[in-house]
Write a structure and sequence with these properties.
The chain is α+β, with helices and mostly antiparallel strands. 15% of the residues lie in helices and 36% in strands. β4 and β5 form a beta hairpin. It has a seven-stranded mixed β-barrel. The protein folds into two domains: 30 residues; 225 residues, Acetoacetate decarboxylase-like.
Length: 276
């Protein structure tokens, strides 16, 4: 047998460039047709940018609020809040997170998402977004059109300033990232990462996501609460303890591929999933 090696000539290089363009353009056309016919699911790039860094404010659900999450958030019948670990050092708890980040790809601009962790049909923790905001016109699975609103998220040196919403219903925060023990590198739990495999919306529709090491093996700093100021006037403040359990600052970008609204063919009108 001969080794699979051969000098690459100018002619061979040109031929392969043309073949690549033709072959993969035909595959893209085929995929577009199959998506239009409902035979394949679309895949789209979604990049959470590194600057300003993606931040998660992680709040413990108040003990007296766990039992009323369903009615307040109007969760689909198939879903209940489920305990989850955020970091490997945590114990599972009922938590709500606010994630604010800059995105490019499938969506653009600044986004803010309030999410609860719910158990899917197998009891595996998943995200459920119950409030989504965008600085630019966007889309979501509940309202279809996400109207643009105030989402400001800026890093200036070691300070991150955030505002979501306006006036008496706004969430504002200032994070001062200290050196040393005030913001150590931490390790997120495996179930925290895999919760991103399926991100549900409040009507039971889910996005299927595939992510890289930016999420699965992320460089994350946990900023101590003494270095964070928060003024939460949102409707959700009554559900959570005022001092965050963690404030997680991601140092790198997170590259994802998303199949949006992936379960529509299996979904029933009440938000339950058909498994057959």
């Amino acid at each position: 047998m001969k080794p699979l090696t051969r000098p690459l000539t100018r002619r061979a290089l040109l031929g392969r460039r043309l073949l690549k363009r033709f072959l993969y353009s035909q595959l893209a056309l085929r995929q577009g047709l199959m998506i239009a016919l409902g035979r394949e699911e679309p895949l789209a790039a979604f990049t959470v940018e590194a600057d300003p860094p993606s931040v998660y404010w992680v709040f413990r659900v108040r003990a007296d609020a766990v039992g009323r999450l369903r009615s307040v958030l109007q969760l689909p019948a198939a879903f209940e809040s489920t305990p989850i670990r955020c970091l490997t050092s945590d114990v599972p708890e009922h938590i709500i997170v606010l994630n604010v980040y800059r995105v490019s790809g499938l969506a653009k601009g600044m986004r803010a998402e309030w999410s609860l962790f719910v158990g899917d049909a197998e009891g595996i923790p998943r995200y459920m977004v119950f409030d989504a905001r965008s600085s630019l016109l966007s889309m979501d699975a509940v309202d279809v059109i996400t109207r643009k609103s105030t989402v400001e998220h800026v890093r200036d040196g070691q300070t991150i300033s955030t505002r979501v919403g306006d006036g008496d219903s706004a969430f504002t925060s200032t994070i001062t990232i200290p050196s040393g023990d005030g913001a150590p590198l931490v390790t997120t739990a495996a179930d925290w990462s895999t919760a991103n495999d399926y991100i549900y919306w409040g009507n039971g529709i889910c996005d299927r996501t595939y992510y890289d090491a930016g999420m699965a093996a992320a460089r994350v700093r946990d900023v101590a609460a003494i270095h964070v100021t928060i003024d939460d006037r949102t409707s959700w403040a009554d559900l959570i303890e005022p001092t965050p359990l963690h404030v997680l600052v991601f140092e790198d970008a997170i590259n994802l591929v998303i199949s949006p609204w992936e379960n529509l063919r299996r979904l029933q009108p009440d938000g339950a999933t058909r498994h057959s």
